[in-house]
Write a structure and sequence with these properties.
seven-stranded antiparallel beta sheet; five-stranded antiparallel beta sheet; 303 residues; globular; 12 strands; alpha+beta
Length: 303
């Protein structure tokens, strides 16, 4: 009897512990949930990619990144990027730095997903290639786009590893609708869920003057299994809007560019390391670095 009681007590404690660690999770629908807590990044600049005025969940006539939220729960990374993605197949590029290694300057031999879009930003053979901030070495990439597919509005997504020496896994994740449950179809989704709600008409205005994107509660939302991105507990994220051919980098970047910065243009000549501030944000890094700490040290600590 004591053995049975002990076993039952043990199972109860395991179940209670699992529930405590897991807890509630955000609903993937493109609308901000309270569980995300405070924003981890807020836009400071108007958008030169158009200020959306339509106010509907699917079609938008402008692209902007107003704020970013992130949380790690139940073995998944949840990201919410408030704003809009214009329905002309503008691209949302999301790079994740989750472990040692990776690429600080994009190579040109990464997986050729999304019509070789990732490599379109990489080394052109003459020394040019998109460069991240010092200490940011991209390990994974997710690209999101959307527009008319012949019968209605659709969102499309791709995923790739960004390995130190190039190559690696790359897949078309699939497609879904606006403000959906995030379930992707028609591709290899690897357990990723995503959708967007394009109804935002607040946030930053059009142009390239200073403007704040605080308070926006609709946009692009993702759930990414941690096992797919190296099982991090602490990671860096760089997100930005790009042209339809991955060929014209907007001024909508998170972490943000210096307030009042205009469009950056050709991605291959952009060096975030030469721009003031951090063009990335942190998720899951609930630690105050001591004097002399480095990102490399923190990555080793949280690896």
């Amino acid at each position: 009897m004591k053995l049975v009681t002990s076993v039952l007590l043990g199972l109860t404690l395991i179940a209670s512990s699992a529930f405590a660690v897991c807890g509630p999770v955000p609903t993937i629908d493109g609308t901000l949930d309270a569980i995300y807590g405070a924003a981890v990044s807020v836009q400071n600049t108007q958008t030169q990619f158009g200020d959306n005025s339509l106010g509907v969940v699917d079609y938008a006539n402008g692209s902007e990144l107003d704020n970013a939220y992130g949380v790690i729960v139940c073995n998944s990374l949840y990201l919410f990027l408030g704003g809009n993605l214009e329905s002309n197949f503008n691209k949302l590029e999301i790079f994740l730095d989750t472990k040692g290694g990776g690429q600080n300057k994009l190579r040109n031999d990464n997986p050729g997903v999304d019509y070789n879009g990732l490599n379109r930003m990489g080394d052109d053979g003459s020394g040019n290639g998109l460069m991240f901030d010092t200490g940011f070495e991209a390990d994974y990439w997710i690209g999101v786009t959307g527009g008319w597919n012949g019968s209605g509005y659709a969102i499309y997504a791709n995923y790739a590893e960004v390995l130190t020496s190039g190559g690696g896994l790359g897949d078309y994740l699939g497609t879904t609708g606006a403000a959906s449950s995030g379930v992707l179809s028609g591709g290899t989704d690897h357990g990723i869920q995503l959708t967007l709600n394009n109804s935002n008409v607040a946030g930053v205005d059009g142009g390239c003057s200073a403007s704040l994107g605080a308070g926006v509660g609709t946009g692009i939302e993702l759930a990414i299994p941690l096992s797919l991105i190296g099982d991090p507990t602490c990671l860096k994220v760089c997100a930005f809007i790009n042209g339809g051919g991955h060929d014209y980098l907007a001024n909508q970047v998170l972490g943000p560019l210096p307030a009042g910065t205009c469009n950056l243009g050709e991605p291959r000549v952009v060096n975030f390391g030469g721009i003031a501030g951090d063009q990335f944000f942190l998720v899951g890094c609930n630690v105050t670095p001591v004097s002399g700490s480095t990102w490399g040290g923190l990555k080793r600590l949280y690896k």
